[in-house]
Amino acid sequence: MSNKLNESGPSRPKRICTNREYENRIEQMIFESESDEHFEFSDSDSDFMAEASSRVANDSDSSECSDIDVDVDDTGNIQNTPTQSWFEEETDMPNFNFTKYNELLVPIPGDGSPIDFFFLLFDDDFINLLVDETNSYAEKEFLRIGHYPSSRISTWKPTNKDEMLTFLALIIHTGTIKLNRLNDYWKKHHLFNITCFSNYMSRDRFLVIMRCFHFAPNIDDQAQPLDRMYKVRPLIDYFNNKMNTIYYPKRELSLDESMVLWRGRLVFWQYIQNKRHKYGIKLYMLTEPAGLVIKFAIYTGVFDDMGGQGHASKVVLHLMSEKLENGHSLYMDNFYNSFDLATSLIQKNTYCTGTLRINRKNTPVEVKQAKLKKGENIARYSNGVVIGKWRDKREVAYISTEFKNNLVVSTNKRGHNKTKPEPIVNYNKFMSGIDRQNQMQSYYPCTRKTIR
Questions:
Q1: HEC sequence for the chain
Q2: Which residue numbers delimit the PiggyBac transposable element-derived protein domain (predicted)?
Q3: Whole-number mean pLDDT of the chain?
Q4: Per-residue pLDDT tens over the stretch 152-165
Q5: What predicted TM-score, i.e. pTM, was given to this entire model?
């Protein structure tokens, strides 16, 4: 018995010793420090997860992060970052004029009632697209071998434009009258008797249209789609093109991310801690400060057209592609802002202002290393860009190509006055478009949790 105890069994595999510096180089090759996002990636079921950090939007937020302040060439070798000349005194700041007008680019439809503006956005071409794609998909499902005769799809009849408009109206109305389940809207019980639904469409017809609701044709099961968003790509392109055609926004624009709730299986599923919907699909949105969405894009992983190296800059230039050279003032948080992006936007006659990660490339060393007391700030100028740091409850780094490092008095909603740097004051004033949009959308939610 003792011999058996003394016998050595199979040894446990030894853990491979990793070189952290080598790992940092690999990570840097994929996610460059100036464009790295600090959100969770789950591309291709990867186990790589990075916890989200909050956007710096007020006095108490922090701009610290753990990015690597190095530059990497195409071969993966770490290069020395060229020294940028920074000056304590003000240098020439750019001066752009706003060359456009905030206006509706088409005549006001009808008598200006809400339904007229609805049809301005959702015109006949869009409704016909929904009708054609829904009928096409329903026909394939109807002819598919293996469906049960008692299923709803067996009673399918082609839909048309009028019925599709009724279907969309009922979906919107579910956001104003909130019930737990879709079936509750057709109940005959006196506590649930809402005749406005059953008078316009039967429950089974509504559910079968929702079952077949489509925006684009499906691809062959054996083919690998090049575009992960191909099923809703016509909807995305339609909205972006439509907004660019009918409306030109104000001078001030804000750019940030939003979330669409989704808890199912998805390759590019995301988790963002400080959002109302923490789990779901991440959207990059360009909005006006009042909350009107001008353009949006969906993040589909590190291997899409805007993913990988330079991701944040690619997102900004994509969303601003039709608005450059016109003198806009763009407000962004510390995920997007960098010195290189700011100088690039200057060349395109566009201002940018916002918070900054203190360890981004080309950030002045004096600003990085400065130890500030409450109320103090420090800033440096170079090539029309000012980068500074100000301390309130925590240190907040900021960047601007429009506002100088002047201290101005700001009054909060409680009537208290506080002296802050001018870039921070304007950032807090105009960087509210996404939050406003999410607030307004939360009043009338029509999303439903379904099996499909």
A1: CHHHHHCCCCCCCCCCCCCHHHHHHHHHHHCCCCCCCCCCCCHHHCCCCCCCCCCCCCCCCCCCCCCCCCEECCCCCEECCCCCCCECCCCCCCCCCCCCCCEECCCCCCCCCHHHHHHHHCCHHHHHHHHHHHHHHHHHHHHCCCCCCCCHHHHCCCCCHHHHHHHHHHHHHHHHCCCCCHHHHHCCCCCCCCHHHHCCCCHHHHHHHHHHCCCCCCCCCCCCCCCCCCCCHHHHHHHHHHHHHHEECCCEEEEEEEEEECCCCCCCCEECCCCCCCEEEEEEEEECCCCCEEEEEECCCCCCCCCCCCHHHHHHHHHCCCCCCCCCEEEECCCCCCHHHHHHHHHCCCEEEEECCCCCCCCCHHHHHCCCCCCCEEEEEECCEEEEEEECCCEEEEEECCCCCCEEEEECCCCCEEEEEHHHHHHHHHCCHHHHHHHHHHHCCCCCCCCC
A2: 113-450
A3: 80
A4: 888 889 999 999 99
A5: 0.77
Percent of the chain with pLDDT over 70: 80
Least confident of 31-40, 204-213, 297-306: 31-40
Instruction: Say if residue 33's pLDDT is above 50.
Output: no
Q: Domain locations in the chain?
A: 103-245, 249-443
